[in-house]
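Anyone have tokens for DNA-binding response regulator? Sequence:
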Amino acid sequence: MAQLLVLSSAPGGSAVLPALELLSHRVRQIPAEPAQLVNAPSADVVFIDARIDLVGAKSLCKILTTTGMEAPLVLVVTEGGLTAVSTDWGVDDVVLVGAGPAEIDARIRLAMGRRSAEQVSSRISTSGITIDESSYSAKVHGKPLDLTYKEFQLLHFFATHPSRVFTREQLLSEVWGYDYFGGTRTVDVHVRRLRAKLGDLEQLIGTVRNVGYRFNVYEDDQPPVPAPST
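Reply: yep, here.
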């Protein structure tokens, strides 16, 4: 049983999808207004009513996607409204207002499954480090790392190219871009800062003498435990 949130500006609180009443999911309907989203209840799937106001529905969809809504968005439209929907709406699925309970239930399951798969695929876990591509964040042994955007990009690049050696020039091109006019010294500075933030996992970014750097991957995906100081 899923928790569903319906956003609708229809007067009188009429049912947006009548077939939902025939399913066992928990349904909460609130006005489709940006101010209502601040205290909106959590949901597994969000349905957006676009039966009447397509322009307002599109605007609401963009607000939800830009503010980081994690639940999949399903647009409810009439058959005529289908012609107005495109990829720039940012929705996960579209359902006709007259859809039956079996179809709606299937779309709910599929939307939740796809979103779960996307969230899993956006995370990289290796050698004690977890990188979340969707939120541009990283953790070491579950503890958040305070990284700048460029430090995150550098760590992400290393982690997605394990064991491969890169010269400073290659890193500068791949992470900073071809149009960056700074010298390779900036790579050394960022590597040094990144190592300092990795703490006891600083050895994950290895130095290859006279060549550059590489991301070390350890057997069983576990970095060696540092020897106790004497």
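The domain at 3-121 is CATH 3.40.50.2300 (Rossmann fold).
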